[in-house]
Write a structure and sequence with these properties.
- With about 220 residues, this protein is mostly helical.
- It has one domain (about 25-215).
- Helix content is about 70%, strand content about 0%.
- The protein is built from 12 helices and no strands.
- The longest helix has 22 residues, at about 90-115.
- The model is unreliable at about 210-218 (pLDDT under 50).
Length: about 220
Amino acid sequence: MLWDPDGPARKPPRESADLLLSIEKMFQISDTFQRSVKPDFLLMTIGETTRGAIERAYEWLIPIISRLPDTIARLPSNAACFLLLRAYGTEGEERVQLKELSSPLLDHVKGSLKGSFGELDAIRALDLLLSDVASPKPERRKCARRVLQDSLVNTESDGHASKSWIANILSLSYAKALVSYSIKHMVCCQCVPHCFVHQYLIHFLFRLWPQTVNVAVF
């Protein structure tokens, strides 16, 4: 059977499929692809770094990182954030599976927010988390605030940090860019019922960093 990768999708004969599966099992070809970093087939398969792309990859991505936890360090920051949000918000068997991954995922999210992987990763991570803080869905807001609290406040190494995660954004490596994103989402929060507290947070940031807030709001 000839296969043209540029042609229409074709279903291989049952015999060919069984042969491919037996070869894969014998030589663990999938493990080789999943562990590869040059090129990184895992990230190539995920494709975009949008929330939608991560959600579409979720079902097959979780089994891989459960079996190969080192894979977490290669994930885009917003992918790690999304998986951590799922770990904090799911119930049943899925929650048990994700709970085992929550610690390495949290470490990755902390590193992303603190700038360990660069400014763009820090912005992507905070943007995803704050979009959930501004969500009209209470469960999303609850999980996002918990992730931010655990990432920016509840850490052993930050003995002198503020007890407010939003205040601790000011001490991050790329604070100037991150505060602008914070204000954008906090303004949206004012439109969400029972989120009037975020008006206080906007004024708090304005008092600490007025020039950034002016740019973000106006």
